[in-house]
Design a protein that fits this description.
Layout: E1 13-16, H1 22-25, H2 34-40, E2 43-49, E3 54-60, E4 64-69, E5 78-84, E6 89-95, H3 97-118
InterPro entries: PGBD
Protein name: PiggyBac transposable element-derived protein domain-containing protein
Organism: Pieris brassicae
C-alpha cells in the first residue's frame, strides 16, 4: 500500500512484512527471543498513523502477523476459541476485529486462485 495509491475512496486491508512500516516499527512490540514469543502469544498491539490514516496491527499467534488497513482497526476485540495443547481443551483468546475481517474476506481470493489453477481459462 503505497502512499501515492491512497485516495479518499480507497479501502485496503493486507498483510505486510515486519519491516514494512518504518515509522511505526519502533512503536510496535517485537518478539526476539523464545521467552518473549511465549509472553506475547495470543496478544496484539496497534499503532495508528494519522498522517496516512492507516491502522497497523501486529497479532502474536504461533507466528506474528502484521496487518495494515485504511479503514479497519483492532477494536472491538472479540473472543475466539483456540485449542491449547497443555490443557488439552479450548480456551478463549482475544482477537482483534481487523484479523477476523481479513480472514473472512481472504477466503474468496484463495478459492478463486484455486479454481483458476484447476481450469485453463486461456487468459
Amino acid at each position: 500500500m503505497r502512499r501515492s495509491g491512497l485516495s479518499m475512496f480507497s479501502y485496503s486491508l493486507r498483510t505486510i512484512r515486519q519491516n514494512g512500516v518504518k515509522d511505526a516499527a519502533n512503536k510496535l512490540q517485537t518478539e526476539n527471543t523464545e521467552t518473549e514469543r511465549k509472553r506475547w502469544r495470543k496478544s496484539y498491539c496497534q499503532v495508528v498513523c494519522n498522517k496516512n490514516k492507516l491502522s497497523i496491527v501486529k497479532w502474536f499467534d504461533n507466528k506474528q502477523v502484521t496487518l495494515v488497513s485504511s479503514f479497519d482497526d483492532a477494536y472491538p476485540v472479540e473472543n475466539i476459541k483456540r485449542f491449547r495443547k497443555e490443557a488439552k481443551s479450548r480456551v478463549d483468546v482475544k482477537c482483534p476485529k481487523i484479523l477476523k475481517d481479513y480472514n473472512r474476506h481472504m477466503g474468496g481470493v484463495d478459492l478463486a486462485d484455486m479454481l483458476i489453477a484447476l481450469y485453463d481459462t486461456g487468459i
